[in-house]
Amino acid sequence: MRIDKYLKVSRLIKRRTIAKEIAEAGRVDKNGRQVKPSDEVKVGDLITLRLGGRVIEVRVISLNDKPVKGTLEPMYELLAKPESAR
Q1: Any idea which architecture 3-84 has in CATH?
Q2: ∠ at Cα 72 (60, 21), nearest 5°?
Q3: Separation in Å, CA 74 to CA 33, 44, 62
Q4: For the whole model, what pTM was predicted?
């Protein structure tokens, strides 16, 4: 699954276009490397988002193209609570 789609489907970012713009701006890392919106995500990948003054770090635990509304099966494990970037 593309990283921009994963960020939207997992509800880390509200809209896919915003996820794409954030990745293009270099504010998304996968396993320590900057990614493009089209980079593929796999189970076990570490994703770091730099959003404004916050840094969010998660581990991918499932890939679900079309999550069923009402079931809130988490697609990621939060590794670091959002903190201010210094």
Answers
A1: Roll (3.10)
A2: 50
A3: 24, 14, 8
A4: 0.85
Both structure tokens of 83: 């903190």
Edge to edge, the sheet with strand 46-51 lists 33-34, 28-30, 46-51, 54-60, 76-84
pLDDT by position in tens, the chain (length 86): 999 999 999 889 999 999 999 999 999 999 999 999 999 999 999 999 999 889 999 999 999 887 666 666 788 999 976 655 55
Name the E strands within the chain: 28-30, 33-34, 46-51, 54-60, 76-84
pLDDT at 65: 81
Tokens of 80: 């670091």
Question: Cα separation of 60 and 30, whole Å?
Answer: 10
How far is residue 51 from each of residues 34, 48, 54, 70, measured CA to CA in Å?
Answer: 14, 10, 5, 27
